[in-house]
Design goal:
Rossmann fold; 5 helices; about 10% strand
Length: about 120
């Protein structure tokens, strides 16, 4: 899912937002220092996971933020906690919102006030 996160970062950059991509490599133990460092500088987190959202990495991020007393929106992109039928993975990801477009449509309203001004030279 790191490729989706990178693509989201590129798209947000084109829209005038600054985005960082962190590859956590594992869920446990969660790197609380990295989460805290970014949480104190960003307007929102987006997590991508190729499994059920409930109890996954996004949930761990939310729990860590709560324990640190940091209130920041977290958009979790992952599978719903329900039976997922068999099919082509791209079709299923599109149906269940595991896409860059889905992440972008959820995060942009949360960070719209953070858009950086773009200078145009003529």
């Amino acid at each position: 899912m790191i490729s989706l996160a990178r693509e989201l970062g590129v798209r947000l950059g084109r829209e005038g937002y600054s985005a960082a991509v962190i590859n956590p490599r594992f869920v446990k133990p969660i790197d609380r220092a990295v989460i805290e460092s970014y949480a104190r500088r960003v307007a929102a987190f987006v997590t991508f996971e190729d499994h059920v959202k409930m109890g996954g990495f996004g949930s761990a991020v939310i729990e860590a933020l709560e324990e640190m007393g940091i209130q920041i929106p977290v958009v979790r992109i992952g599978w719903p906690d329900q039976f997922i039928e068999h099919g082509k993975i791209d079709d299923l990801r599109a149906r269940y919102g595991l896409t860059v477009e889905a992440a972008q449509s959820q995060v942009v309203p949360l960070i719209a006030h953070r858009r950086r001004a773009t200078l145009v030279a003529s």
